[in-house]
Amino acid sequence: MLLFKYKDQNMHRIKSLIILLTVFTAAGAFAQDVNLDSLLDAEMNKKTKDEIQYTDATFKSSRLINGHTVETTQKGVLDFKVMHRFGTLNQGPYELFGLDVASVRIGGDYGITNRLTIGGGRSSFEKQYDAFLKYRLLWQSAGKRNMPVSVTLLASTMLKTLKDQTDTIKRQSSDRYSFAFQALIARKFSSNFSMQLMPTMVHYNIVPTADLPNDFFSIGAGARLKLTKRTSITGEYYYRLPNSKLPNTYNSFSLGYEVETGGHVFQLHVSNSTGMTERTFINETTGRWGKGDIHFGFNISRVFNINTNRRKLPHFNAADSTEEKPAAGYTANEKHDSSGTHYIESTFAGTHLINGQSIETTQKGILNFIILHRFGTLNSGFYNAFGLDQASMRIGFEYGITNRLAAGIGRSTFEKQYDGFLKYRLLWQSEGKRSMPLSLTLASSVILKTIKNNGDSIKTHASDRYAYSFQAIFAHKFGRPFSLQLMPTLIHYNLVPTADISNDLYAMGAGARVRVTPNACLTFEYYYLLSKQKLPGTYNSFSIGYEIETAGHVFQLHATNSTGMTDRTFIAETTGRWSKGDIRFGFNISRVFVVKKAKSINE
Amino acid sequence: MKRISLLICLFTVFHAHAQDYLTRNGNVSFYSHTAVEDIKANNNEVVSLLNTSTGSLEFKIAIKSFHFPKQTMEDHFNNSSYMDSEKYPKASFSGKISNLADVNFTKDGTYNVTAEGNLTIKDVTKPVTAKGVITVSNGKVTAQSTFTVKRLDYHIAGEAFVQKKIAEEIQITVNCRYDKR
């Protein structure tokens, strides 16, 4: 190198060597010292500082218990909500602690933008209609913009359509309206704890007496505390300012428990309020915790993507971007080698087809909580919201003793029935080593009617209240798109109304499921009563359903001419007729709890 | 003169060490296919370092940078039933190109390679072998690979009822374009 030609060679040599060495070591060290971790951290930090990190899920749902939370519905999403309150716990065992009384609000929230939500609903309580607008003014955030709280403004209007029989003066239609305005202020302190304050004003166009103000002020407080990964407890309290109270009303206090599963939140709670609109629960709560006026209730919500612009992922790899085309090897999961027996699963999505049992039994170690719900008939007119004010429910549990044997119990509000059943899957459709063309499940149930019949002239024996049903359910799954089942049924009554009717009734049922989209199916169920043996004034039960499978549960919506949900009542005692418009809208929801670690039959 | 010599020295030094290729915006995506549902997510904030003289290959991936078509999916992905990204914010791969001799990084072209190394997700480390392609073009190096991993190996379980919706084997696609450091 050039260096070496200089006079002061030695000196330069040494110097250059030192320089060289340092540079070498430095560069060498530098090259090895690319710390990818810190590089990634730096990138991430830069990103968090440059972007606004909006706090999500301050609350899990847009409703805390009765009232709203700061959460708004995502843009283009329709959130279908059913809010349900039973009667009070102090009503005693005959009314099953309020379970026979139902106050329901059915409604929907739609996200116009991520901050603006519009919604409405109808409550059976006072036949109310309500509509609201909700705007998220401030959104808690960190990063580029730091915002300590979220603030959502809510304006709602409520219309009471219930006709007041005691009214002596003629009312104007505007008298039926009231309005509520809330500023919801919330902060998510951590992933475990969120709190909210709700200053509220409710305006009545008319109040019962002249000495009452038309505007009522209150302040609410709510909180959510996370218990486990997916469950949390919630509380909600509204304090009404002095001189801002209607006579004989109390502050609303509610406690809730919420379970979050893929895509939806299931909320269970106890409250002293019956109504589910701001006016009714904040200002018109007549129940008192101290007296046991506690209502058990639940909220369920189901989200539908109406108009969501899905974020587009860049197509980065040719092999991958060929949509829908599964890569080789993935089909292996669906084809099974013939050395083992593969049992066909999910012939039907739920253990209930619509009203009746399906071939499916609850898996071993699983507790299945099922709510079957039927409204009144569609022909009950606009005033009754086409049957929405009436509710007939069956609440039940099923437990899988083995993968083939399940036992269940239930209570229906219709005739205050209790039922218990046993279901055994004798044959299981399978492929492979042992090939079986169809599945056969035997089901037997006992139904006890506890409603007191005031018209009874003779004393009835306790045994007279019992009826039994026996079914053999044959089913075949013709691949994913279609399943079919046949249900020969025997119903035995211990007591029938007239002597010329046989105690044993025979019926033949048929059910089917047709898949319309990857996650949704249409279902059909029909029971044909063998002619001469019908009870007077009864018709065959026919139901059409639409079911949506989501993580962990099946949500079934349907229309049927039956009210009851036990074998006896819908097969033999359906009094409604489709042609007369006696069509009931209803839904089934089931929630699965794993009691013991469950294994599929194929494992 | 001294300065020039120093500069020359430095250049030589750096030239000798310029076998490191780095990316800060590499792309890693995954794909899960079942009869019920297809799940896809994409991350283009992957940091990776490739040493062309030793063949060593390193990746660091922030879990929260995986983006899904649906926000709710992304939330679930990050929660404690799946990736638990609060607890395990990063995944990494550390390995080597085993047939380095087949690749000429100074000549434009496409080379088939095999990478072997350890993949760490949720603090679980398992050996992985992946076939891929290295493309050299105008001094830029691009690495592409598709391979599968078994999610249960890394304790990515999810709730019992979603099992039918998530494939046992997840297909991972890597696409990184490296710059000379």
Keywords, separated by commas or semicolons:
heterodimer, A: 603 residues, mainly beta, Porin, 12-stranded antiparallel barrel, 12-stranded antiparallel beta barrel, 5 helices, 9% helix, flat, B: 181 residues, Lipocalin, 8-stranded antiparallel β-barrel, 2 helices, 13% helix, elongated
Describe the overall structure.
The complex is a heterodimer of chains A (603) and B (181). Chain A is 9% helix and 44% strand. Chain A is mainly beta and 603 residues long. Chain A folds into two domains: 244 residues, Porin, CATH 2.40.160.40; 240 residues, Porin (Beta Barrel). In chain A, strand 10 and strand 11 form a beta hairpin. Chain B has a single domain, classed as Lipocalin. Chain B has two helices and eight strands; from the N terminus they run αβββαβββββ. An eight-stranded antiparallel barrel of chain B has the order 1-2-3-4-5-6-7-8. Chain B starts with a helix and ends with a strand. About 3% of the residues of chain B have low confidence. At the A-B interface, helix 1 and helix 2 of A face helix 1, strand 1, strand 2, strand 3 and helix 2 of B.
Helix/strand order of chain B, N-terminal first: HEEEHEEEEE
Give start-end ranges of low-pLDDT stretches of chain B.
12-17
- Per CATH, the superfamily of chain B is Lipid/polyisoprenoid-binding, YceI-like
Poorly predicted runs of chain A are 26-32, 312-336
CATH class of the largest domain in chain A: Mainly Beta
Oligomer description: heterodimer
Biggest interface goes to: A-B, 54 and 65 residues
**Could you tell me the radius of gyration of chain B in angstroms?**
19 Å
Structure classification of chain A: mainly beta
Write down the CATH topology of the largest domain in chain A: Porin
Order the strands across the largest sheet of chain A as they lie in space.
2-3-4-5-7-8-9-10-11-12-13-14
Sheet having the most strands of chain A: 12 strands, antiparallel, barrel
User: Which percent bin holds the helix content of chain A?
Assistant: under 10%
Shape of chain A: flat
Number of strands of chain A: 28
